[in-house]
Amino acid sequence: MSSAAPEFSHVVRAHEIGSPKQHMLEADAGQRTALATRFTLLSLDRLTASLEVKRDTNGIRITGEVHGAGTQPCVATAEPVPFLVTERIALLLTQATPEGGEIELSSADLDVEPLEGDIVDLGEIAAQAFALGLDPYPRSAVSVAGVISEDEAVALRSPFAVLKKS
Hints:
The chain is α+β, with helices and mostly antiparallel strands. The protein has one domain (11-141). Helix content is 20%, strand content 36%. The strands form 2 sheets. The chain has a 5-stranded mixed beta sheet with strand order 2-3-4-5-6, with helices on one face. A hairpin with a 2-residue loop joins strand 3 and strand 4 (59-73). It is elongated and about 65 Å long. The N and C termini lie far apart (57 Å).
């Protein structure tokens, strides 16, 4: 783990978490600039998160959504490609994982991670969820010589592609 402080930190103490509490987070201009650098974005115009944090029998449950907007560079042309990200967060932080690494949960779509120490950084959790929602291969509408679309590549692999060339 890096020793550098997260760009969008919002720390809560695990021992203080009890009944459900809402946390509304919004990255300021400096945080958005630092996150844009970290995630190789051209701009990050907005980053917000609405999270509910509560303690339950298995650990600390964090649910909610993160929203972001900005531009990323096209993988082929480096032209700006706008994005809007909405990513759901359903996370359980646990003190210990039982042998075999399995915990019985009522929700199949809940991620489980270990809780290390007394710090829960909701901002970093939101930033990581946001990054997962980004398109890893953004493409602009600008055509580039020698670069074909995914649909064109699929059509070329078709056994009937040679018939279309005639």
